[in-house]
């Protein structure tokens, strides 16, 4: 891997500065304002005791997610989906990805008949909004589960979280595999991949797309290597953020 | 007016702490994250050179606004309007109010054929989201106009702003007129009024509603007095915030 | 106040001719075809025994309203909202205003678990459609309540109406406060205000908007004076219309 | 045909009282408030000089129609289609029928590049709303064409109307063919047919439906005979109504 | 009737080649891929035990239908209605026609509390898609009823089908009545009529429209004669197709 | 890899029978009815000379795709998206995937200013509908390009296709990697992956999802190996099908 710096001075295998403001919202049962560089996403977790009617009586819970972007999160203002009256394909796709990713680390029996809705609202976008959403939503989810346990909605010994989960993008830019693409990099990437990984290093989701040239097996492997490294770092950051006050 | 303190310790004529983070967004031409206590609204101003086709060729600009609330801005999560596929009456009404209020202080000839869209997204709601939106949107608008002038889209000597504008809520709670109602006060108010005022103390909009008992002329006058005082303070805060870097 | 006549020969403080055809519809439990000059609104009240599920079991009723304009009520034909697939902001806003205004004079305990829907359909528009709607809807509502009492859905001694309600527009046209603006006046008004008042002269709603120049306290007071006078007259007309057959 | 009277005392071959208030609307270029008994439809014709872009330059005009029912036109209130966000199949079907029927008597070359929109809004419904709509829309259309000619949008010698058009329902009720079904009859009819006929007695549209038992050729013929008679009467009424002031 | 051949070599009273592939779909309880010449419609019948809540407890079933066209069934691709977000008037109208036509031959008491949905999806369109849909849907319906009887949802001796049903188009092309119009003929027809007939030769629906000149009684009679003949043939084909395996 | 047979008797690395009926539709410029076992998708390619306005003047073409399922393609009938008035997330996601996959093998400069819309309508679904769609759409696209060249819309020497493209699903079922999952296998798979590959064996898209347990690097590699083999076979089939008549 080359050591040449990127536009923002990073090496190819370097994450942008990651910050997680846990408990940003006073209203939600769990919340996190996460930044991957200039990308900022407000993740809230809404805990409801009970499940949708079609799931009732099975002793299992449910987790779902919604993703959205403020109209001026991007450099050019886009129309609100509420104004257009329909949700676009991209929004749907990312909402589903976030939901699947978080559900993969939840034990629904242990969660009991409770529902958690994760809202990921992009306040500012500079690439990697879906990966930041997944990574931040995990922190919000963890806090909402603590909230639910404290109020007796979740059993004292139940372990609803089987693992942690984070996500990062990787891509091939000018022939070189790179970690955590910022918007300018993403728009020039030949291949773009989002990789969702558990804290223990297993894959939940691998989504790679050739934007320009198709990619070969070797390139795929190099990207997966990078993504595993990046997610290792993110899992560490999540652990550190969640450790605060956990003993109390 | 009684001196009895309110739930948050304020006197009847006291505003909640107001903060305005100017330039919060890197993407927008103007932006402000405004707080009225726990109410937090991200206001962005998007400047576009040119006007909608039906206005072209008249040498005049246009200003419009959109208001929205994140689903978990409130204590109970509400469905996204984009998911429901339609914008609710309340959202429409507030968007229109913000637009009218800001247009009232803009000289469209001086603005020239430029369009500014003000997006007010409520990140956290605790009463007064529409008044915070108007007050914050003015700051975002002012900065977007500076941006437009610097790039030559607005004439050097043009004065697109005729005045400043701010807004505050007032209401009668347990028989007593109060300024800047927080959510718990608002939900118990017998009468609720939103008053939009220029920096020079004239009315742009007066919207008073009897939620419980109808109100008489005397009560109306007391509420208007309070609202004028509150807006005087807000105009001062706006002036202070906008003074920073204005000389440079 | 000047004595100069207006386009239609009225003095500034004069209402247009008001007519109310009570019981216009054979189908509705209450109805009124109301005219403010050339503005004509068909108001119907639909009485349903029972309330929406979320209100059941509280012994209280509900009143709601919907406003709409026929596509060719105006001088230029506008597209139907049903065809556009969404209700516009203005329609929403007025529907909500009518609903709030009528609810303000209803005692929901006395109404019992009954629901009344007020439909205000503008057949011809010449300014003041929302004020005519409120004024006419009151007559339709009163008749629907009589209907409900006759069928035993409302208790014999229950008094669901706490007061009457009417509404009128006022505005400043060429510097002069005027009552009940016709369309040509409304479109030129610097300030436009709709005032909803009970029969006993208290305010239910005050909505004043500066269309051109902001207005000061003195102008606001002059407009409120006019509006109170106009509503006094409307309350008289409503009383007269409803007196017919009331003894029988 | 039996001489037994119907619920409202009519003979099988008798129309309900038909009234046409021509020029009911001050705003529209042509208008008629038509009644077939208790069925009342407000028909307006909106004349626009010019045609939709896809028709421009061919020297031909266009006529289109929209049908709608006020929510409380019927005995039970139905939801507004604008509120539901979509137009129902029945509304679409009738709008298309009205449009086709009126276009069948218009010479588009003679009309020139002008567009006429016919709005038929049912204020009160008691069966036969679509046939009343067609019959009333013809009167509104005729007046709009006069308006267009007077303003020079239609050539002085052009004859845009090739014929008149009216419509009536017929049906088999308890085995007997009947003309102009009221709602109670319509809901019990075994067969229901709407027949649109020109003033010269030719068919524009025949729509017969077996609601209960299928019908045979003989019954079909009896219904067509009745319908032709009914339309003859309607054509007379239209002629009389339109004669007023035509010489002037 | 002239013996002159049509574009595809048919005589005026000749159907296009009709084929019915019964049981085309492995998933549906009944299905038929029907062709009228190049028009191909996939008809499926979905059998559900039970009825919508508003019908429950009456011991009666229900049959409904939905019609749709693939976007490239026609010569020019049309937008999908799902993408446009609303179903067009034509689609609604045809879906309703198919539903009414099939219901006319069903005895809902004998069907019992079961629901059948008929989906008619046009894979390729060359005129007559609605008549092919009705004719094919009957075959799918018949098979779904067999399926329901075999599983005990329909009583052993119950006869839910009172008759068979088929449909054909007729029209006047260059002055001559013709059977089963292909697209090129349909688009030039002066009069276009769809006739739905039972196997025993009675009318369920007659829908005739003058596209060009209005038509007289004689032409109407000639068209009905042709349509009855065509439907006689279709009923034969249906009978033959359904006879296969019926004994087994 | 185990040699144990699957429910349908296949070995883990065996495709279901694949058939491609080229030119199924008479209307479309290119078409293919493709089957992967009981999964049947009708793919049509609509060729339009010209591009959307925002692309005009750049000398480049565009390819887009829409995917949909007939309501009774599946074992239980699902509501039509056109009836629901909105396209679901899954449909959006697959439409976008098909579009991206096909665009990856097109040289837009060589295509010239032409637009091709690929419609993939699932007539019968038994797993693998998106992979069958991509594989069949390629054949339809190839034929549409021949059509465009024959009519001179594409240059004689232009090579708009850079490669072929096909897709196949792979998954881990009861611990074992398997190729081309049928519906019953897919619904039990722990991991599900769709792999889009060029004829020359490079990746265009890799989408792997852990439905149950997260998967490790070794499992990922085994799945990719299988997918490459399956796509090699599909590319052969495409080549054979397209060879017919290609010399003529």
Offer a quick outline of the entry.
The structure is a homohexamer of 248-residue chains. By secondary structure, the first copy, chain A, is of the alpha+beta class. Chain A has helices spanning 81-84, 89-103, 108-111, 129-150, 183-186, 217-243, and strands at 18-22, 30-36, 39-49, 62-69, 114-124, 165-173, 176-179, 191-198, 203-210.
Plain-language structure description:
Chains A, B, C, D, E, F: Its EC number is 2.7.7.56. The structure is a homohexamer of 248-residue chains. The first copy, chain A, has 248 residues and is an alpha+beta fold. Chain A has a single domain, classed as 2-Layer Sandwich (Ribosomal Protein S5, domain 2). Chain A contains six helices and nine strands, in the order E-E-E-E-H-H-H-E-H-E-E-H-E-E-H. In chain A, the strands form two sheets. In chain A, strands 1-2-3-5-4 form a five-stranded mixed β-sheet. Chain A has a four-stranded antiparallel β-sheet with strand order 7-6-8-9. In chain A, helix 2 packs across helix 4 and helix 4 runs parallel beside helix 6. The radius of gyration of chain A is 18 Å and the shape is globular. The interface between A and B is medium-sized, with 35 and 35 residues. Strand 9 of chain D pairs antiparallel with strand 9 of chain E.
Secondary structure: elements and pairs:
6 copies of one chain form a homohexamer.
Chain A: E1 18-22, E2 30-36, E3 39-49, E4 62-69, H1 81-84, H2 89-103, H3 108-111, E5 114-124, H4 129-150, E6 165-173, E7 176-179, H5 183-186, E8 191-198, E9 203-210, H6 217-243
Parallel strand pairs in A: 4-5
Antiparallel strand pairs in A: 1-2, 2-3, 3-5, 6-7, 6-8, 8-9
